[in-house]
Amino acid sequence: MTIEDLVRARLRSTRLSLGWSLDELAARTNVSASTISRMETGKRTISLDLLVPLCEAMQTDINALLDTSDVEDDVVIRPVATPYHQGGTIWPLTRNRDATGIVAVKMRLEPGDVDESAADGVDGGVHPGHDWFFVLSGVIKLTLGAREILVHEGEAAEFSTMTPHRFQAHGGPAELVSIFDRDGQRAHMHGQADMHGQADAH
Asked: What's the structural domain count of the chain?
């Protein structure tokens, strides 16, 4: 998609998100409805003298219309395996940019490899927020306080992390995808390689 195609699509999307017809936008500017239509459909060249009044009417920053940074970013992440605990492996699935604080990882846990948010707590640790995971293969034993829950392949678990918790492979190796918020990342990923660098590695 060229920058001009991108601007046309953004113009049309912004107008429609406001619920305005071509005539309504034309009434708010000195640009005719037919001119706006030709701009949106590629039948007229986009020029700055037309963009400025349109952006002002729609209260849109012209720089946002012209911004290509999101388009040029590489959206594909190539996870790199990283050793985790006693024989386990993780693959970071996010770049861990600070915009959201959310981190996703794929984990392979071997029997005896326990993931817990406090290294010194035999009953697991606690931290603010929630944890979530989905079991890709095998069985995960999730310990929540005094409860032990078996989560099988194809099942997911979500729980408050203010309850002492840990999870481990049960009866053989297991693979899962887990999502942590910022607190969960600090608690569970302590001592691991920098996830930002690993996720961006090609």
From this structure: 2
SS3 106: strand
Q: Which of 49, 72, 95 is the last residue of a domain?
A: 72
Position 50: which residue type? L
169 located within any domain: yes
Alpha carbon distance 181, 101 (integer Å):
6
Mean pLDDT over the full length of the chain: 79
CB atoms within 10 A of CB 108: 20
Q: How far apart are CA 42 and CA 40, in angstroms?
A: 6
Which residue range forms the structural domain that includes residue 58?
3-72
Minimum mean pLDDT range among 35-49, 67-81, 134-148: 67-81
pLDDT digits (tens, 9 = 90+) for 140-164: 999 988 899 999 999 999 888 888 8
- Do residue 86 and residue 147 come from a single domain? yes
Residue 125 scores a pLDDT above 90: no
- How far is residue 159's CA from residue 29's CA, in Å, rounded to a whole number? 53
Give 88's contacts (C-beta < 8 A, 6+ positions apart).
107, 108, 109, 110, 113, 115
> Are 64 and 110 in a shared domain?
no
Q: Are residues 99 and 180 in the same domain?
A: yes
Residue found by looking up tokens 């037309």 in the block = 50
Residues 115, 27: Cα–Cα separation, whole Å: 61
Distance CA 94, CA 102 (A): 8
Model pTM greater than 0.70?
Answer: no
